[in-house]
Amino acid sequence: MVNEKKGVSRRDFMKTTGIATGTLIGGGIIGGLVGYNVNRDKGTTNTTGNQKGNNSSGQTADHPVNVGLKFFSTMTAFNVLSQATERIFPEDDIGPGAIGLGVPYFIDNQLAGAYGMNAKEYMQGPFADGATTQGYQSRLTRAEIFTQGIAKLDEEARTRYQMGFAELEPEQMDEILTAFQKGEVEMLAVTSDFFFKLLRQATLEGAYADPIYSGNQNMEGWKMKGFPGHQMSYIAQIENEEFQKIEPQSISSMTH
Amino acid sequence: MATTLDKVDVVTVGVGWLGGIIGAECSKAGLKVRGLERGAKRGTEDFFMAHDEFRYAIRYELFQNLSKETITFRNTRKMNALPMRMMGSFLLGEGLGGAGTHWNGHNWRFLPYDFQIKSMTDEKYGANKLGSDYQLQDWGVTYDELEPYFTKFEYTAGISGEDNNPFWGKRSKPFPTPPMKKTPILQRFEKAATNLGYHPFMMPSANLSESYTNPDGSTIAACQYCGFCERFGCEYGAKSSAEITVIPTALETGNYDIRFHSNVVEVLKQGDKVTGVRFIDTVTGEEFIQPAEIVVLTSYVLNNAKLLMVSNIGEQYNPDTGRGTLGRNYCYQILPSATGFFDEQFNTFMGAGALGMTIDDYNGDSFDHSNLDFIHGASLTITQTGQRPIQFNPVPPDTPAWGAEFKKASIHYYTRTLNIGGQGASMPHKENFMSLDPNYKDAYGVPLLQITYNFTEQDRNLHKYLSEKTAEIMKEMGAKTVVAANPLTDYDIVPYQTTHNTGGTVMGNDPAISVVNPWLQHWDAENLFVVGAGNFAHNGGYNPTGTAGALAYRCAEGIINYSKTGGSLV
Ligand SMILES: Cc1cc2nc3c(=O)[nH]c(=O)nc-3n(C[C@H](O)[C@H](O)[C@H](O)COP(=O)(O)OP(=O)(O)OC[C@H]3O[C@@H](n4cnc5c(N)ncnc54)[C@H](O)[C@@H]3O)c2cc1C
Ligand code: SF4
Q1: Are the Cβ atoms of B415 and A226 closer than 8 angstroms?
Q2: Residue B274: what are its φ and ψ, rounded to 5°?
Q3: Is the Cβ–Cβ distance between A9 and A38 less than 8 Å?
Q4: Is the CB of B100 inside a 6 Å radius of any atom of ligand 1?
Q5: Which residues lie across from B273 on neighbouring strands?
Q6: For chain B, what is the domain count?
Q7: I want to staple B44 with a disulfide (CB 3.0 to 4.6 A). Which of A12, A61, B194, B237 is the partner?
């Protein structure tokens, strides 16, 4: 639990990559394995993110004070979310996975706001089950669906393996996630496949949204994908035959 | 108690492209015009920080807030219609400029065939080519009659293009600006299509190839190919839209104003005329009546129909009896396509909303349908709109939807995947229609519009045939793997398709099968005009706005004439 806060790349990358000042240093596609959980000071490269709380080596005093939970109220739930997103979008030789990109914090933030509260969705009853062609018909908000879904992931892990979801082996997590994806797990007022769809989509959003939303750390998601983020113009490059490698830039560059 | 405002000559409900055109033309002619717009004022200055895929394209910053108003939907009359709780299949506009603020800017004229589809199809293929469930009808206006108004819209918007498509109608003037850049992706399509004997041309674009000043004096800037176009506003003022063209033109006359945050809930009718509209100020909650000599509905296809329904103007279409015209001939767009996975990398992240090349060899009646089980077709286009990373995660068939393999493949193919897509025509069917929902209401207590819609045999056949043709082009382009679109099954309101809803307030010469006459004047109320792609008797093989814009210009002329003479325009 402490590990992901210390050494902490978020502060590190703010310092070392100069996001705040708009300059960009380093962070190549393979080299930039920067995530919440990289303890660079100690030279570890554990970017799979140990958020299980069983591997802590003491709280540092200088954890980033702007990172924390706004929606989930227990680390157990947050760790389930983290591991589930990491399975959907795992770290590999191309670069960081969901945890390294800050996706779990991104989702937590989103659930605390308009997205979680379905602020822009039509939420008046009567609610009825519809055909899949009729889309979202749950009476639950996304926040409610995630709360239930995350608890269900953990419950399913305990039923199948007598362990919390976050403690499972990757293949076991995948097995449970697949059961959710197929709609095989009972949920209330929503189906598990619908929850899985939301989770998958939110994971991709967190991996690739502009870093101002607290995912896509250090623009590593964009770097992996070759997407340059916010650029003013491509008029000078669009006729080039060659693929253009362009250092990405965040929209935050417009406010600094 | 509603407060009654001072009477105006013309009130438009909604201020998008079409409300803007009516506003500009009528105010230039000296009429006092007021636009009532439920959304807020906005413009180019609001889009400097718009290169944010998440906010604009994923969280739908610029679109209608569904918590206030949505529609209900079912595939068939046997189903229970349920609200579209989340935006999906189409993205409704709200605020100054409407959906034109965040459109792509593909700008088309429907084909001469479209306007006379019934007579031309019957003549060539016999009266029963599709069967009696399909409600084909002529539009009451021909391409030639509409030509000057197409030109007018294109010159207002500064459309960039080239007149070398052998299949479209004759143009009286060249495009106002030259075509956009023919990028390597487009060239590859051009070469493949040419090899196959087709006739590729640059798609007419409302993202302008060069800076242009239109006949009204508005200047539109040159497109920067920034790749954040459709779903976004343009920070350069390079994407032609109402708020940088017709709205400033209207405001300059001194005869025009816009009242924002004004949600119209009813068209008021007395005898055989309308007297104005009732609206709610969405900030204060106050209710107002805006009296007007002439009411023009320009609130998009869906709300134009809904407002007529809630105001009891015209007879609701009944699929059992075939009687009634309001809500009839609701159509959509059929999207044949093929995806190609390549070895080489392309600059897919660069682009512009309407940067593309097209062939019309399979559109309209360009090809013989004698031995085919459908009519009409689609424009087939490769676009380079700028792929963005949240939305675009292409993977070859049989790749899992998540996990390690998915991550690798979606990253690899992000810049190695191209798509050719068709805007396929959609024919009216007796079971596809709009009506009022009996159960669900909007934030102002007004019933929601209900859509009953499913794809038809015609749609499925068209889709299959053209997806195969499209896949052949993709193969010729050198893709390693080509995947034609899955066969059409049932219409699904979840994935985005197009915001090209049409019909419901159809135009025509015969009041038994149309809501408005060819000047878009309501058959049952001479001082009420209804303007939009809702006037389309079917949907053609292109995006709708160029044609809707032409109809709006023609309607404005009708309104100005009507304001002098009164009476029916036909
Ligand atoms: C992402 C996207 C891409 C598109 N790309 C293309 C394209 O490339 N080519 C093309 O031809 N078309 C395209 N379209 C479709 C095009 O945007 C529309 O056809 C066009 O903008 C419709 O213009 P309109 O004036 O009829 O309606 P709108 O632009 O929708 O304007 C209607 C206005 O009325 C207001 N309104 C609605 N109800 C009320 C009410 N009750 N009271 C007061 N005001 C009300 C709305 O807020 C809105 O501002 C695209 C649409 C989208 C969403
Ligand atoms: S692609 Fe061109 S028209 Fe579209 S938003 Fe960018 S600069 Fe504007």
Answers
A1: yes
A2: -95, 155
A3: yes
A4: yes
A5: B270
A6: 1
A7: B237
pTM of the model: 0.93
- What is the pairing mode between strands B351-359 and B201-202? antiparallel
CA count, 13 A, side-chain hemisphere, B57: 25
Residue A175, classified by CB atoms within 10 Å of its CB into exposed (0-12), middle (13-18) or buried (19+), is: middle
Instruction: Find the CATH number of the domain harbouring B124.
Output: 3.50.50.60
pLDDT tens per residue across span A153-195: 999 999 999 999 999 999 999 999 999 999 999 999 999 999 9
Domain holding A228, by residue range, is: 4-253
* Residue at token pair 């009708």: B558
Q: What is the domain count for chain A?
A: 1
User: What span, in angstroms and rounded, lies between the C-alpha atoms of B151 and B225?
Assistant: 25
Query: Which H/E stretch holds residue A78?
Result: helix A75-88
Whether residue B570 lies inside any domain: the answer is: no
Domain that holds residue B303: 3-565
For residue B208, the ligand 2 atom closest to its alpha carbon is 3
CA atoms within 13 A on the CB side of B357: 21
Question: Pairing between strand B287-297 and B8-13?
Answer: parallel
Q: Cα B491 vs. chain centroid, distance in angstroms? A: 18
Residues 6+ apart with CB under 8 A from A93: A30
pLDDT tens-digit readout, B438-494: 999 999 999 999 999 999 999 999 999 999 999 999 999 999 999 999 999 999 999
Identify from B64, B385, B411, B497 which residue to disrupt to test chain A contact, counting A C-beta atoms within 10 A and taking the largest count: B411
* Residue B114 Cβ contacting ligand 1 at under 6 Å: no
Quote the ipTM score.
0.96
